[in-house]
Amino acid sequence: MSHRRRPPPEEGAGDLSPPSPAGKSRRARPWPERRVLALALAFRAANALLVRTYFNPDEHWQCLEVAHRIAFGYGHLTWEWKRGLRGYLHPLIFAALYKFLAFLHLDTPWFMAMAPRLLQSVFAAFGDLYLYKLSKLIFNDHVAQWTLFSQLVNWFMFFCITRTLSNSLETVLTVAGLYYWFNAIESSKGNSVVSKQQTASYQSPQSRKMALLIAALACAVRPTSAITWLYVGLLDFIHTKSKCRLLFLEVIPLGAIILAVTTLLDWWMYGSRVIVPLNFLKFNLFSSGGDYYGTHVFHWYFTQGFPSMIWTFLPLLVFGVIKSREWRISGLIAWVLGVYSLLGHKEFRFVLPVLPLALMFSGYCLASMSQFKGKSLHEKRHFSKLQLSVILLVITNVPMALYMSLFHQRGTEDAMFYLSKEAHDGRVNSVLFLMPCHSTPYYSSLHSSLPMRFLDCTPSDNKGTLDESDRFLMNPLDFVGEIFGNLSSFSHIVLFESEERRILQLLLRDSFEEVRRFFHSHFKIDRDLQSSVVMYSQRDVL
Q: Of 2, 294, 309, 467, which residue is the least packed, with the fewest Cβ within 10 Å?
């Protein structure tokens, strides 16, 4: 695919800089990048503070729990870490944050719960900035402004980007890397995206090296990021003249350096020679190990997953792809969705890195609406179409973002925050979680080295073997009696209301009383309705 910019569309055919009534080109006033970053930092900080719900266990169990163990010496490592499937680069960022909080004596329940998301909000803000810059580079200032609007308003981006998932950091790195990559391409050509006067001030090799460095870091954080960069790299490798120079003097050296550094880091942290990217790809791609956690139909990302994420921006995405004819980016989105569709186990967060790119096309569509010029009689009608579109996007995304971030599945987070305050005051001795595994945060939220027990769900080598979570859900009363016998060895028990009814008599028999009940959800997701999280405590602890 050629990287020459398409010729500007004819007037009235989607040109985003149509002539003004006076005959002069009217352009959007550019926003200073510092102002964009300041806006993004403020918005994402508020975003982080408003996210109070539980979304995916990996946010806590594959990042913060590991970081807490590194910083304070205690924390649970899931089975993935025992098999060498996870790298330490991402958790070490938050381990440093925890050490900093401890140094300042700020490792209190509130800071331990909110500081990691606030740190991630800083990364997310830079992701917003680089998306603005990428849109400006490929299209223009006006599209960049509407792209930023789309990015900030989209419900799923608000819901997910400030969470400490590796996918969130991968998304930021992907957008930043793509900016430097396309900057290198366009500046070297001196075409319509970057003017000839600007070309001399750009240093294409440095931009490309920066892009390759960021791409390598993205792959180190999450090896499946290679899917994105394989497409981007091959697309340009085919058309580049200096193939050997690109491959042997830039791609391989930079990739080898990052791989060597992260591998040595993992060897040091694991205490053994573990090649994490190889183990990760082997388990998730070649052996379909992720299928243990459930599978979806092939077309799920195209028909359910991604449409749910982009939501009411979908029609604008389709229009933007068709009218902009920017096939490199739209092809990348289709490639990523297509490759991930080959895997049985599918999750929303896996394709998060291409959501900002899709929103860029929404920005293109909105910019087209705002600058469409026709007769004065029609101008008001088209402007009203823009207003209606903006209103529709706001009323369908903002309430959704707030509901999912503030209410849906918040009980497990509230329960752990309550326990952390009680433990801080010395009123908790030990905790048992009688709920599906990894339903709550753990030591990273409790921040106290008390004995705790949750139901294990480590995959078994023998297919058909039920784990503790499955056995408990099938018959809670028999399972508790068989595994734990008398529950009096625990001072606190946490469980969902749906299971509480089935073991209530056992709890009362062992001298437990209800302490708190936390709202969790209005509707069920993948199992029985878990409307509340209930906490019981021994009477002598109350």
A: 2
